[in-house]
Specification:
Leucine-rich Repeat Variant, 9 helices, mainly alpha
């Protein structure tokens, strides 16, 4: 993989379906968060997007996000921010609480992605410094 489109296309559908069928492999995703390869780090987050839409793997979403929280690569930040946004559709309180707990350290890019679909009053609260 050498760009975000290839990474996201493969991870969202192929990896997401695979992980629902074989959840034990999520532990390997967590290892990807430590890779020097930006696409593997992004893949660690975006592979959970389709399962997260269905409410799966909440604990793992936060574990992976914790490991990527301070990543300096904007495409990795956008990836885990997107994962948080999708997760918030079914777990808004949990994601909002996570963002509030981490907003001082979370890059603005990731924070904005994470809260994008939340009600305005929550977005405003999360954006306060």
């Amino acid at each position: 993989m050498n760009n975000w489109a290839k990474c996201d296309g493969f991870c969202n559908h192929t990896m997401g379906s695979f992980l629902v069928k074989y959840p034990a492999f999520i532990e390997e995703l967590k290892e990807w968060t430590q890779s020097k390869n930006r696409w593997l780090r992004r893949a660690a987050a975006v592979s959970l997007i389709v399962p997260a839409k269905k409410g799966h793997f909440l604990k793992d979403v936060f574990e992976i996000t914790d490991q990527l929280l301070l990543d300096e690569d904007d495409l990795v930040q956008k990836g885990y921010g997107w994962l948080l946004k999708v997760t918030s559709h079914l777990h808004q309180k949990e994601v909002f609480d996570y963002v509030m707990k981490n907003k001082e350290n979370m890059p603005r890019t990731a924070l904005r992605y994470a809260i994008e679909k939340m009600p305005q009053f929550l977005r405003l609260e999360a954006m306060k410094r």
